[in-house]
Automatic annotation (TrEMBL):
Summary of the function given for this chain in its UniProt record: Has an important function as a repair enzyme for proteins that have been inactivated by oxidation. Catalyzes the reversible oxidation-reduction of methionine sulfoxide in proteins to methionine.
Organism this protein belongs to: Cryomorpha ignava
Protein name listed in UniProt: Peptide methionine sulfoxide reductase MsrA
One Gene Ontology term of the molecular function aspect: peptide-methionine (S)-S-oxide reductase activity
Domain of life: Bacteria
Amino acid sequence: MKNYKKAYIAGGCFWGVEDLFRVRPGIKDTEVGYLGGDNENPTYRNHPGHAEGIELTYDPNETSFNIILDYFFRIHDPSTVDRQGNDRGSSYRSAIFFQNQDEKRDAKKMIEIVDDSRKWEGKVVTTLEPFTKFWPAEPEHQDYLVKQPNGYTCHFERFEESFV
């Protein structure tokens, strides 16, 4: 059994985030779902307070939490509150769901680095939220842009160079 780890992030519509991360070095699996909300067993139609997020399974021998965060801040706009592209509402917030104090510390430091870079017009508004539970989205949302290559996404690599 490999010593894989998991990371949980939200950066707007989960389809685009998943599509970009699925091909990153060290990422072994992606699954879209709901994080940080108010109800049990959320669905696409009923997920109050939940962010559309992603569970990333990664090999720490090939990538790291910091490399994941660096890429995360390059593929979505972390300076908009509850919005990415045409999507609006708390479901589309920028958030990092930390599992321990090391991840929280690393996320805070990465936010400072991104802010100091001044690559974004505004300050980073990404929330740091304790991870509680990941609820997988319905099957039709998994690998959506693989199944629907012309489907909607507002995610793309905005900066080629790393923040770190």
